[in-house]
């Protein structure tokens, strides 16, 4: 055996080991790749293909019309209303959920007793079926026998037909959306608060930041930045996907004042049976959600790691 043969054998063994590890890696990720293709890529491709047709649900024939559905959407007042209402709804729900969630988390964490009870109470709406709770909200907001109007009348405040007024229906839906997502934000913020080392607060005290607001500004909020960004992403995506409350409480009314993108998609596809038109709405909805998720993820990844 020459002096070069052991080196050649060793190199071959490394190559074979590398090939085996590569094959093992592909085998491990194969199930996930198959699920991604079957559950996401293929359905998304099918929706995109249907959006380029004039197919009506149940029809045996269809015609390719290209981007005509998208051009019709841009000229459709109902779709523009859905787009505006969804954006307004998200702008109301997301900031209020983040602010209230953080406030309640700080309040619960500062207390010494009943922490588990308060966490469970606030998280309960997130665990409850929103369809069932929407019926409860409908009873509470009834214009004549609802508890909300009765309480308002008892203290001399003006009452309203909350779910039938064009100026009140969207804010009321935003209140319900905030109430439903608040528990999730609260639990995530509580987990973030638990992860903040006490040493940071001790160092802040030594540096003179011993007040509540100073500790909040110097230590708590910067340390919670990654959690806050994650909560922002989750709550934003949930707000964009609102459908249950609109379907049960308002059905997009009055006069499209509460119609949102997912409800518009459902109405066009399954009530009006214009499946191609509804698929075009689905494509736009998907583009908006993916763009927002990509932007927020980019912000998360671009942040320097906290020491």
UniProtKB/TrEMBL annotation:
PROSITE patterns noted in UniProt: ABC_TM1
Keyword check for Transmembrane helix: yes
UniProt topology in membrane: Multi-pass membrane protein
CDD domains listed in its UniProt record: TM_PBP2
Residue ranges of the TM segments: 23-50, 57-75, 87-108, 120-140, 169-191, 223-241, 276-295
Domain spans labelled ABC transmembrane type-1: 83-296
Gene3D superfamilies: MetI-like
Keywords for the protein's UniProt record, in alphabetical order: Cell membrane, Membrane, Transmembrane, Transmembrane helix, Transport
Location in the cell: Cell membrane
Superkingdom of origin organism: Bacteria
UniProt xrefs under PANTHER family: ABC TRANSPORTER PERMEASE PROTEIN, INNER MEMBRANE ABC TRANSPORTER PERMEASE PROTEIN YCJO
Family of this protein: Belongs to the binding-protein-dependent transport system permease family.
Protein name: ABC transporter permease
Organism for this UniProt entry: Bradyrhizobium iriomotense
